[in-house]
Amino acid sequence: MRSSIGGQYNTFNFVNYGYRYLGDSEPEASNTFSEGNGYNFSWVFTNTASYKLQLGAHGITALAGIESLELNAGRNINGFGINPFSTDLNFVNLSTVQNPQVNSGKSNETNLYSLFGKIDYNFNEKYYITGVVRRDGSSQFGANTRYGIFPAVSAAWRVTSEKFMQDVSWINDLKVRVGYGEMGNSNNVDPNNQYSLFGSDRAFSFYPIDGQNSGVNEGFASTRIGNPDAKWETSVTQNIGFDLAMFNNRLEINAEFWDKETQDLLFQIPLPGVTGNRATAPFVNIGSMINRGIDIELVTRGKIAGDFEYEIFLANTFLKNEINALTPGVDFVPGPAYRGVEPIRNAVGQSLSSFFGYKVIGYFESAADVAESPTQEGAGVGRFKYEDVDGDGAITPDDRTFIGSPVPDYTGGYTFNLSYKNLTLGTYFYMVLGNQAFNFSKWFTDFFGSFEGSGKGVRAKDSWTPELGNSAKAPIWESASNLSTNGASNSWYVENSSYLRLQQLSLSYDFEKANISKFGLSRLRLGVAANNLFTITGYEGLDPQVASDVDSAFGIDVGNYPVTRGFTVMLGASF
Amino acid sequence: MRILDNFRSALLALVALMVLTVACNDDFLNVEPTGSLSESTLANKAGIEGLLVGTYANLNGEFGNRFEGPNHWVTGSILGGDANKGTDPGDYSTINPIQRYETSPVNGDINELWRSRYEGINRANTVLRLLAVATDVPAADQARIAGEARLLRGHFYFDLKKHFNSIPYFDETVIAADIPTIPNTPDVWDKIEADFKFAFDNLPETQSQAGRVNKWAAGAYLGKAYLFQKKWSEAKGIFDQVVANGQTTNGKKYALVADYAQIYNAANDNHEESVFAVQSANNSGSVNNANYFDDLNYPYNTGQDGPGNCCGFFQPSLNWQTLSAPMQMVCLCWMVLTTRQLMR
Predict the structure, then answer these.
(1) pLDDT one digit per residue (tens) for chain B, 344 residues
(2) Of A363, A507, A508, B325, which has the fewest Cβ atoms less than 10 A away?
């Protein structure tokens, strides 16, 4: 029997000073100030009982448990104001600013309650079977749908325990695994998802009904449409794999083929425009998605000479992601718009967050080219020429198509460690292949027509000229904005964002136990490390590792901050 | 047997623990929402009055998109030719095709206008739906609240009819789940007229709060609906009444303001020309109450106390230049439906 209770209390506070800036045509007119703080609290209470039984060659371990989680109960308060008399930091607070506003919030906990049982059986350490059943309940779902039951079963065969393998000395361990499992997920669902609610907000439900010119009267409006029928998203995983160790454990190969189908996918689909959609839309179980992959891990270690040792660890994942069903009546789930451009569409047969738009087949090279091509809004010399996908002689919204996906085909993590006596040199590389990014930062830097007069990028020098033709990096440099220039989502923004990055290079030294034990230390390590030293990529934006938004809208680079290079000095001690 | 005994007692303990936790478990998984109100809390006079104010709040737009502005500077003035977009081509480029009559079916701004007006309709419908079930609303207030809500609903449908012609129509009796299945129809004038007529028959002539609509706003709007259908004699009939007897919500007999500039002076709000004005205010905690939809329509660098501070949108067109001075003012200031416009 085992009981454990754990809790976490987080508290935060922030202060923000913003300064007036009148340097260009769109200035920041006021000095601003805000500050706030808040806390949240979570706890987990787990009780398990386990029982072990060995009857001859039969080994059985049974485990049953109960777990309750209470997550993210908290409060926060923050205030905002403008134009204090003086910007002296010692003077500025919420009492000395103009038009101070205070906001606060309380969030009730999200509660989860689970019962689970697990049985491990093995025969002679040769055949293994494991069965798990869990029943999870969540306060995020309505009373009729809040419980989900998720079974899983897996089996393994240790081939090296068989008699016929005893003579094969170069294989140390070989185990073949197969499994089937269901898992529930409720992570992204708002705690209030089941409730239809009303509320008040200064921005959208208050109104100066007295006809006054200062101040407003309170009003109410619908703020959330509830879905009491939402239920657990279930992922069904099937996998088969093997673990192999060879040559005195100097080479290990672990491989796994897996197929994970996520059913009853929980998505927040925008409410239909006609039903009034200021209110937050509920998460609904809308479709299903398939992830298929192969994981291959290679580990090799050994001595080169004398005290020189090495360890190489290669983790490789090949992945295919596809949405394979959406609720009838829903053709796709759109992503957000950026400056009137909507690059994302989540649709059946495509990966999550696929890019959608016109396919650029070049630039119009002459007036004759414009005249001969399918009619296209805003067509002109040096502008984008789109592909007439449906072949109807005109470029219409129907010619938009899927033009890329931010989901990589391959990701790999490679660790190379070299050690000499107490000194260790560690490297960690990370590689992503076969993914694209929608480099929307080019909208700002590569068109004269986007905020004329603002700073532009170097590709402006390679914008279209008759000489450059289709090798130009950007359309003709002109004061224009329409479907054929910067007014539409198209494949010109889509770039290969594969990269290889040295994420960490470290050098560390472990002191001899004998030397440090007199200080009461069992381990003392001193080291230096450098993070993100270099990246090899063809991507033209700031960083190919485009910071991601939610799963249904990622891979859009709006000029995101790049990962920074960092240097660390480490001192680790154990007593 | 010892093994079995141990097993049995462990099992017993487990079952006991489960029974204990299962017993309190349904309560544990019922977590109340915070910072919000349920529909039943609002199904009374005070709640419905608040929902009605919330319906008014939709008049000045909902989602912070400039296309939603009640003055229609894009889909009215720019589309109509009084004004050009201004600024440079890349700035708010989705307006460019609109001026060329090439509005794209995938223009997201148009969608904002659409869903903003339907938000207003749904708010008005919520008021009417709860008014039918609330038991503490006196009869006079019932007539007034229903009149205001129906005038506002008529206003939003009128706006949709003007912009889109064929639209889905539904009233407060249709349940939310059925709304998306309602087909578009161009035949909505009868229903818009019915809302205005009801408002005309049920609203008081004056109200203590100047921002509310009154009987004469309903009458004027009914006349405007007749005009759009070329029902000239009905229009004449109602306009004659409005001109002869009309007064503003704050009790001023309809008349022309002596000094033209005073029509648009904030200090002279809700004057004798004001039939139905969308109210705005500062110091409200949100720009949404302060004509945010016009924030781009000022010269660049108007300084710290200037409005908007930018961005040179909404410039007078050559068309506009050829109009007479009063007509120019009327064109540029769609903010209020004034008696002057009624008499155009």
Answers:
(1) 455 555 556 555 555 555 455 445 678 888 888 888 988 899 999 999 999 999 999 998 888 889 998 889 999 889 988 889 988 777 788 888 888 888 888 788 898 999 999 999 999 999 999 999 999 999 999 999 999 999 999 999 999 999 999 999 999 999 888 998 999 999 999 999 999 999 999 999 999 999 999 999 999 999 999 999 999 999 999 999 999 999 999 999 999 999 888 888 888 889 999 999 999 998 888 888 888 888 888 887 776 666 666 788 988 888 877 776 666 655 444 333 444 433 33
(2) B325
A368–chain B nearest CA distance, Å? 23
- Nearest chain A residue to B305 by CA distance is A29
CATH 3.30.70.360 at B40-342, yes or no: no
ipTM: 0.87
User: Cβ B3–A204 below 8 Å, yes or no?
Assistant: no
Task: Outline which parts of chain A fall under CATH 2.40.170.20.
Answer: 125-330
Nearest CA to CA, how far is A92 from chain B (Å)?
A: 19
- The CA–CA distances, whole Å, from A518 to A422, A430, A513, A522, A571 equal 19, 41, 9, 9, 18
Q: Which residue type sits at A320?
A: K
- CATH number corresponding to A125-330: 2.40.170.20
Q: Cα separation of A459 and A474, whole Å?
A: 7
Residue numbers in A near B3 (CB within 8 A): 53
Is the CB of A274 less than 8 angstroms away from the CB of B118? yes
Q: Tokens 């919330």 label which residue?
A: B54
- Give me the DSSP letters along A377-388: TT--TTSEEE--
Query: Using CA atoms, how far apart are residues A383 and A385, in angstroms rounded to an integer?
Result: 6
A209 closest CB neighbour out of B212, B250, B288: B212
Beta partners for residue A40, in sequence order: A10, A74
User: Which of A146, A200, A481 faces B93 most closely, judged by CB atoms?
Assistant: A481
